[in-house]
Write a structure and sequence with these properties.
Blueprint: E1 2-7, E2 9-11, E3 14-18, H1 21-31, E4 38-44, E5 47-56, E6 59-63, H2 66-72, E7 79-86, H3 97-105, H4 107-115, H5 118-129, H6 134-148
Antiparallel strand pairs: 1-7, 2-3, 3-6, 4-5, 4-7, 5-6
Helix pairs in contact: 3-6, 4-6
């Protein structure tokens, strides 16, 4: 596993660290690619994480979500101690049954959903899938269908 220390920066609302070039080169070699999101795993101040490396504004960034930062006891401006490597484990996210049912009942929304890029489909499925209670799931499934029907914004996105 590759190790480095880096300052935590913030772009928009997203805290991240920049991964050193030599470590990126090793991860690209392990992943057998240097484009698109790259699944990684590692430790942040000795706390395990699973995450994705993303290239944004010509820089590869390891975004540090709130649970990662809280577990590690660090935040924007701090120095993070990172261990990182490519994660070859498949990342399959199942669609919540309520979202699946709502899409099956609304052919227009299903058509728009299937025309979205895979990353947008995954974003919607993940958002619904990670909600904690059924009330939130119900409310957000309705919002997702409304979004896909061209009626409102959802997950920070304009209508498709």
């Amino acid at each position: 596993m590759n190790s480095f220390s880096a300052k935590i920066y913030k772009i928009g609302v997203n805290p991240y660290v920049l991964v050193p070039a030599a470590i990126l080169k090793e991860i690209f070699k392990q992943a057998n690619k240097d484009k698109g999101p790259i699944p990684v795993r590692g430790e942040l101040n000795s706390h395990k994480f699973i995450q994705t490396l993303v290239k944004y504004s010509n820089k590869w960034r390891l975004y540090l979500n709130t649970p990662m930062r809280k577990a590690a006891g660090i935040d924007v401006g701090d120095i993070a101690n990172v261990k990182i490597e490519f994660d070859p484990a498949p990342r399959i996210i199942s669609m919540h049954p309520k979202l699946k049912s709502a899409l099956e009942k609304n052919k227009k929304a299903m058509t728009v959903f299937s025309q979205q890029p895979p990353s947008r489909q995954k974003e919607i499925v993940r958002y619904i899938g990670f909600l904690k209670n059924e009330e939130s799931v119900d409310k957000n499934v309705k919002r997702a269908i409304s979004f896909l029907s061209g009626k409102e914004r959802f997950v920070g996105r304009d209508k498709p």
